[in-house]
Amino acid sequence: MASSSLKKSKNFIFYNLNLKSKFLIPDRTSAITNSLFHHRLLHSISSPPSPPVPKYASYSQLNSAIFELACLRRRLHSTTSVSNDISQLAVEPTSHQVLDFPGGKVKFTQKLIFTSNSTEERVHCYRVLDENGQPFTDIDSSLKISKELAVQMYTNMVTLEVMDTIFYESQRQGRISFYATTTGEEAINIASAAALDSKDFVFPQYREPGVLLWRGFTLQEFANQLFGNKYEYGKGRQMPIHYGSRKHNYITVASTVATQIPHAVGAAYSLKMENQDSCVITYFGDGGTSTADFHAAMNFAAVMEVPVIFFCRNNGWAISTPVDEQFRSDGVVVKGKAYGVPSIRIDGNDALAIYNAVNEARKMAIKEQTPVLIEALTYRAGHHTTSDDSTRYRSTDEIERWRGDQNPVKRFRKWIESKGWWNDVAESEYRSSIRKQVAQAIQVAERIEKPPVAEMFNDVYDIPPKNLKEQEVFVRKTVKKHTEDYPSDVPL
Amino acid sequence: MLGILRQKVGGATGLSSQGLGNHMLRLRPVTSALRNYSSATKEMTVRDALNSALDEEMAADPNVFVMGEEVGEYQGAYKITKGLLDKYGPERVVDTPITEAGFAGIGVGAAYHGLRPVIEFMTFNFSMQAIDHIINSAAKSNYMSAGKINVPIVFRGPNGPAAGVGAQHSQCYGGWYGSVPGLKVLVPYSSEDARGLLKSAIRDPDPVVFLENELLYGESFPVSAEVLDSSFCLPIGKAKIEREGKDVTITAFSKMVGYALKAAEILEKEGINAEVINLRSIRPLDRATINASVRKTNRLVTVEEGFPQHGIGAEICASVVEDSFGYLDAPVERIAGADVPTPYAANLERMAFPQIEDIVRAAKRVCYRSAPISATAS
Question: What residues does the Transketolase-like pyrimidine-binding domain cover (chain B) (predicted)?
Answer without folding.
Answer: 44-219
